[in-house]
Task: inverse folding
């Protein structure tokens, strides 16, 4: 008796089917076609096998949370710019999947990626300036004895008539673990939208990797969008995951098609579950740091659940002149790849670093919220050989500091340090300055950095926060609750929801944020 292969597979593996086709091992995915048939005996002896993925093998890497530093002892706060937003989208996926507060992995929460997900009303760059800077200080909502200092940076935008030729390489994971609807099928729809919205100038190459790497298209003109989209939609998932081979091939092709003064970029799309060749975050870091010297930039797009390897994806972006987004829906795909296409794809400043010098006569102690994995030594700021972060056209970068003013009562206790008032400078010419924000960056094709500095003085202080600081504070508070931060103070879902009602400027993303707060509050 003959039966359809698809039916047989369903009968044989009903209890394990949901997880069986998502594995990333060396087995072969069994794909059915309407014309394929097997006898029962033949099916029983077939060499195909299904493999399963443990219920949840997601992995995250998070260093210790930033604490307070006494300004007199350590006045400099130095970190690399970060425009990633993956953490927020990933946590949104968890909340929409009905995760309770206790179910959410605290290591998956990176506050800066929550804050930087949203748009803010910031000062635009003037003239030929690379950045516009907005600063503000107002009361801290979760600790009445502290203040919040807001530093918002907005990058220069590409001119509407400025044509930059693209040399894009899509590096797509087609291993067995990418079979699920929220992986390769969603990826195909996302890349289709991207291709439709790219200008005709330039080329696209497509490299796939599973057990080995394959070049699907090389140097295909973007004028041939139908052919590119067809190649994307013809991809199928199956096999193990050799990310190392794919990365090397993608950069090789990007370098071969390099466009001087163009946009040379590899876009990696994967669940990060690499199990052949180099696979650990440290090994991937070494590989990608070598490849970035070619002048090719990187965008990392994460997909999927259950076996998602956020630690690897984030490390690739941080070490590869890149940015990192998590795509959990077509709405997010359109936000990242269509609405924010210029920010995602076109770098206007590389190796961007921030160094904030606090005035001990005004600020007793400070704490940077987030950016734990981007902290740098103070001496690295002026060292052009030290890597910073990449900022795209029109991108915004927000840094929030929780500060304790000089003379304010504080519960911060230090084991090894004393704040000796007698050692402070008597420097009256800076009496109204809280801090100086220094920013170093390089032009995309330069090796030498440029410096801009902005003073944060008494004029930035207000008892009533602007909508910028108010909303950023709400988002930071939400992140601290989700991660059970030791610095969350009086943070509460109720305060966030009540404060949201007072906002005048709302958009669909802020409204979605409000709904997420309500959902996790209800489920907890």
Result:
């Amino acid at each position: 008796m003959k039966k359809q292969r698809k039916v047989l597979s369903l009968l044989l593996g009903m209890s394990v089917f949901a997880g069986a086709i998502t594995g990333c091992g060396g087995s072969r995915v069994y794909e059915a076609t309407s014309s394929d048939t097997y006898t029962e005996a033949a099916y029983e002896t077939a060499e195909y096998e299904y493999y399963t993925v443990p219920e949840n093998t997601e992995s995250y890497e998070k260093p210790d949370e930033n604490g307070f530093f006494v300004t007199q002892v350590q006045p400099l706060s130095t970190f690399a710019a970060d425009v990633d937003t993956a953490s927020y989208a990933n946590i949104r996926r968890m909340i929409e999947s009905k995760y309770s507060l206790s179910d959410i992995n605290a290591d998956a929460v990176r506050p800066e990626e929550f804050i930087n997900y949203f748009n803010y009303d910031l000062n635009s760059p003037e003239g030929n300036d690379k950045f516009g800077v907005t600063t503000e200080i107002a009361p801290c909502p979760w600790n009445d004895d502290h203040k919040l200092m807001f530093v918002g940076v907005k990058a220069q935008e590409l001119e509407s008539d400025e044509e930059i030729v693209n040399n894009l390489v899509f590096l797509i994971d087609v291993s067995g673990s990418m079979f699920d609807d929220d992986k390769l099928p969603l990826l195909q729809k996302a890349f289709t939208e991207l291709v439709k919205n790219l200008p005709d100038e330039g080329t696209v190459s497509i490299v796939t990797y599973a057990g080995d790497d394959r070049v699907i298209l090389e140097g295909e003109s973007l004028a041939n969008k139908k052919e590119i989209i067809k190649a994307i939609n013809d991809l199928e998932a199956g096999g193990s995951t050799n990310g190392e081979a794919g990365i090397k091939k993608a950069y090789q092709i990007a370098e071969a098609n390099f466009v001087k003064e163009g946009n040379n970029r590899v876009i990696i799309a994967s669940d990060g579950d690499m199990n052949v060749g180099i696979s650990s975050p440290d090994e991937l870091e070494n590989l990608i740091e070598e490849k970035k010297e070619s002048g090719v930039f990187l965008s990392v797009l994460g997909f999927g659940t259950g076996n998602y390897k956020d630690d690897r994806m984030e490390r690739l972006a941080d070490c590869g002149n890149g940015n990192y987004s998590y795509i959990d829906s077509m709405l997010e795909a359109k936000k990242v790849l269509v609405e924010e296409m210029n920010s995602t794809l076109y770098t206007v400043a590389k190796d961007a670093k921030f160094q904030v010098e606090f005035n001990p006569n005004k600020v007793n102690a400070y704490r940077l919220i987030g950016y734990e994995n981007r902290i740098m030594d103070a001496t690295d700021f002026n060292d052009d050989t030290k890597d910073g972060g990449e900022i795209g056209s029109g991108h915004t970068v927000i840094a929030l500091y929780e500060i304790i003013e000089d003379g304010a009562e504080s519960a911060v206790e230090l084991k090894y340090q004393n704040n000796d008032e007698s050692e402070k400078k008597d420097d009256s010419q800076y009496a109204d300055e809280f801090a100086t924000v220094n920013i170093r960056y390089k032009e995309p094709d330069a090796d030498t950095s440029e410096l801009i500095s902005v003073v944060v003085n008494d004029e930035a202080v207000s008892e009533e926060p602007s909508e910028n600081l108010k909303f950023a504070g709400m988002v930071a508070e939400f992140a601290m609750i989700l991660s059970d931060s030791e610095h969350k103070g009086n943070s509460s879902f109720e305060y966030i929801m009540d404060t949201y009602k007072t906002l005048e400027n709302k958009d669909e993303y802020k409204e979605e944020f409000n709904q997420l707060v309500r959902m996790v509050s209800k489920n907890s």
